[in-house]
Amino acid sequence: MALTIPPVKLKWLEHLNSSWITEDSESIATREGVTVLYSKLLANKEVVLLPQQVLCLKGPQLPDFERESLSSDEQEHYLDALLNSQLALAKMVCSDSPFAAALRKRVLVLQRIFYALSNKYHDKGKVKQQQHSPENNSGSADLHSVSERPRSSTDALIEMGVRTGLSLLFALLRQSWMMPPPPGPGGAPGGNINLCNDVIHTAIDVVSSLPPLSLANESKIPPMGLDCLAQVTTFLKGVTMPNSGADILGRRLASELLLGLASQRGSLRYLLEWIEMALAASAVVSTMEQSKVLLNQEGLIGYDCFMNILMQMRRSLGSSADRSQWREPTRTSDGLCSLYEAALCLFEEVCRMASDYSRTCVSPDSIQTGEAPVVSETCEVYVWGSNSSHQLVEGTQEKILQPKLAASFADAQTIEAGQYCTFVISSDGSVRACGKGSYGRLGLGDSNNQSTLKKLTFEPHRAIKKVSSSKGSDGHTLAFTTEGEVFSWGDGDYGKLGHGNSSTQKYPKLIQGPLQGKVVVCVSAGYRHSAAVSEDGELYTWGEGDFGRLGKLFF
Q1: d(Cα 149, Cα 143) in Å, to the nearest integer?
Q2: How confident is the model at residue 144, as a pLDDT?
Q3: Are 391 and 422 in contact (CB under 8 A)?
Q4: Closest CA relative to residue 393, chosen from 340, 446, 453
Q5: Contact yes or no for 322/283 (Cβ under 8 A)
Q6: What is the DSSP string of 149-164?
Q7: How far apart are CA 38 and CA 28, in angstroms?
Q8: Using CA of residue 363, residue 366, residue 370, residue 373, what is the dihedral sign?
Q9: How far is CA 336 from the centre of its chain?
Q10: How far is 511 from 462, CA to CA, in rounded Å?
Q11: pLDDT for position 323
Q12: Distance from the CA of 224 to the CA of which of 13, 235, 451, 479 falls in 20 to 30 A?
């Protein structure tokens, strides 16, 4: 018996393509360079070594030539069998030599680099293939083709024009602020300053007219658009400083435009950057006050502009708190408010949103016995996506394209989204399910679809702590109780339910066998297989074992 060449599984990771493109291809010519790059493949788990297969080297069964007389055809047959056996042995020995091993590593590294280059510069065929793939919907395929298509000369010209235009605009604005023309009749400000402020004011109007969070999905914004946003943001941050050279109105409008862009992008990062800018500008204003060089209305922002954005954030949060408890900046007689107070109000609102979000993320795992639940008895749950089997408990079966408040889940403490089905755990440990019922995946005793949440029955009665439902195959679900027992139900192919057979289970059934007497603290229903972890750190797996997914070696 001998071991064959170690088989490997290739899994190229898209986000590492850029790093492979920049690798020095000349290093592949040396064995040391290939070893380093191959180690990188192993470290990133793009090449996974599979269990070696045993090769039987037993030759053909030969007759006793001393006692048996063979015909010429039989002698020819046995001779061919011996030669084939020797040839197979020679191939195995040669392929396992150090030279062959280094050659295989070199080929894998070259294959990885070729994939990265092809994916970036020659991916038209790939995009077309993804558009026809049943695993990808048309929306994701369209997005991929738009975001990663090769750049043409037209794209380069457009980008050059946009970059040049922005640079020219920024230079003209700075020049107009730094070198204003003489005052107009009656001592009115020069026309150039008004023109600069009008440009920023127009941009504010455009941003304000957009629907909320129009710039939140950066994957749908082309790279040139993101680069323009970054340039505009950098320019505006410099303008907001009192020593930037811009007039007071220009600095105020710049801070308002920055806030509008931050709210449209909907990311905590940009909101915190605005808060940092406002505090930095306020610090400069404070220094100017001490030096007695401060002008009137310095370090202010439009009250209505700020409150519109703040109220928009509060409406999206769905807060029912009394408005008198909310911090609001002090409004001046001119309709302005302090940048410092606005920064504090916005930071307080961000903290409130984070606090509300953290409460919705608390699972029963963090609730200790005898303590009051951290999660409130009622909560707000939003649903979106496919509703083809009523898995979102909505009246129609149409797709829900935006998050929608679902009153049916108001008392949910934990929600598990399975394949065309949904499971809800309440504060008392009971479980309800809805959606597609084929193969008994809902655990309700039948294979019917369920358009409303319906309670499951556990025998013996138990309080459920966590549910895990598979996202593939024909659907199966695991649940463990507060005592650490594990129930399973649904499709039983490949023995993934853990009951010692492949039968479908339409009611939750307690798993016995090796898990009996164990206190389970985590379960996971995978694709045609299942896993559980006990409190003493033991991992149990069962189901289909292809590709080593169970972590076991079979001899």
Answers
A1: 10
A2: 41
A3: yes
A4: 453
A5: no
A6: SPPPHHHHHHHHHHHH
A7: 10
A8: negative
A9: 40
A10: 13
A11: 54
A12: 13
- In eight-state DSSP terms, residue 399 is -
Phi, psi of 512 (to 5 degrees): -100, -140
Six-digit token pair at 523? 């379960």
pLDDT tens digit sequence for 239-290: 888 877 788 888 899 999 999 999 988 888 899 999 999 998 888 888 876 6
Distance CA 278, CA 93 (A): 71
Which amino acid is it at 96? D
> How far is it, in rounded angstroms, from Cα 450 to Cα 201?
54
- At 104, the amino acid letter reads R
What is the pTM assigned to this prediction? 0.43
Nearest CA-CA partner of 257 in 192, 313, 201: 201
Task: Give how far Cα 399 sits from Cα of 211, 395, 538, Å.
Answer: 21, 11, 41
Q: In 3D, which of 456, 414, 413, 410 has the Cα closest to residue 433?
A: 456
Q: Taking the alpha carbons of 301, 305, 308, 314 in that order, is the dihedral positive or negative?
A: negative
Place of tokens 């309670």: 455
Block residue for tokens 């894998």? 108
Nearest Cα residue to 81 out of 109, 102, 100, 62: 62
Tokens of 14: 């898209």
For residue 543, the surrounding DSSP H or E stretch is: strand 539-543
Among candidates 196, 194, 189, which has minimal Cα distance to 172?
196
Sorted by sequence, the CB contacts under 8 Å of residue 405 that are 6+ apart come out as: 318, 380, 381, 382
Token duo for residue 130 = 């993804």
Q: End-to-end CA distance of the chain: give it in Å, rounded.
A: 13
